[in-house]
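Q: I'm building a small set of examples for a reading group on sequence design. Run inverse folding on the following structure and report the sequence directly after it, with nothing in between.
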């Protein structure tokens, strides 16, 4: 599939998800939640009630992440933060509290419906230190060295050109800037067919990186001090309903799946000096 095709499919899926969230439905477009009554083990219960208190309900219900990057990232008053693939804006709104009125948070997304939802959530939350930008991870519409911290929640896996997305992230960070991202990663070798089925469960169209591959790509982009810490590890039971509905024998798959797919917090730094 070409890069343009992948991007178009991702845009279409998340456009539909945004419309569902805007009308009070679940934004989820894959996983257990796609099956009646299911609770998605990836996207559910990521945020504490104290964190979401005061946020617009549409921002919370549109949450499609797989982690809680703002809880794990160090964010300081006055800093500039960029959220790659900001969706309905939940992590942007949470970050805006942390950086305060002297700081600024950009949310970047390529899907018009998500941007409209995020801007509406910003209006309802009455937050002024936030700006949602239309654009792609692979071509970030911000100048070199203009951002202190990059966050992202389950989006790098969707990029059709991850090397380019990571080198763009590196470019817009100031020297010494931090990369603090949640994403789904794969641990070790997984047969292609298994990977395809599980990735369909994980997201609308996912291309999760193997953890060593992720580290290598970050290093190639120029990052240092790379650290990948699992936050949730999935087993075949998490995907059982979905796999059965797709006619796949989940018991047979278990040894190849268990412990190999996980949500992780990925941390790295842009060196302070060239
Ligand atoms: C899984 S959702 C996550 C949304 C949000 N981070 C959250 O935690 O709820 C992925 C979002 O990333 C956006 N996205 C996916 N690929 C992108 C790309 N290459 N460039 C910009 N946005 C992208 C989609 O439009 C969608 O809003």
């Amino acid at each position: 599939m070409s890069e343009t095709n992948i991007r178009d499919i991702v845009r279409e899926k998340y456009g539909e998800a945004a419309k569902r969230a805007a009308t009070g439905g679940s934004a989820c477009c894959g996983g257990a939640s796609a099956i009646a009554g299911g609770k998605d083990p990836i996207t559910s219960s990521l945020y504490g009630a104290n964190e979401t208190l005061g946020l617009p309900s549409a921002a919370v219900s549109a949450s499609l992440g797989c982690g809680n990057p703002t809880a794990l990232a160090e964010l300081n008053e006055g800093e500039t933060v960029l959220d790659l693939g900001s969706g309905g804006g939940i992590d942007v709104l949470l970050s805006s509290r942390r950086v305060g009125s002297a700081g600024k948070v950009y949310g970047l997304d390529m899907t018009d419906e998500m941007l409209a939802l995020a801007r509406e959530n910003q209006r309802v939350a009455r937050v002024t230190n936030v700006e949602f930008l239309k654009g792609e991870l692979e071509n970030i519409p911000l100048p070199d060295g203009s951002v202190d911290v990059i966050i992202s929640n389950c989006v790098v896996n969707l990029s059709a050109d991850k090397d380019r997305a990571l080198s763009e992230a590196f470019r817009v960070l100031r020297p010494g800037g931090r990369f603090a991202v949640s994403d789904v990663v794969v641990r070790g070798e997984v047969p292609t067919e298994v990977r395809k089925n599980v990735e369909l469960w994980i997201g609308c169209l996912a291309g999760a990186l193997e953890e060593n591959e992720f580290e290598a790509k970050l290093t190639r982009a120029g990052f240092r001090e790379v650290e990948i810490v699992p936050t949730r590890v999935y087993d075949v039971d998490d995907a059982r309903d979905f796999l059965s509905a797709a006619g796949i024998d989940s018991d047979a798959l278990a040894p190849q799946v268990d412990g190999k797919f996980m949500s992780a917090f990925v941390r790295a730094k842009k060196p302070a000096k060239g």
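The CA atoms of residues 7 and 160 lie 7 Å apart.
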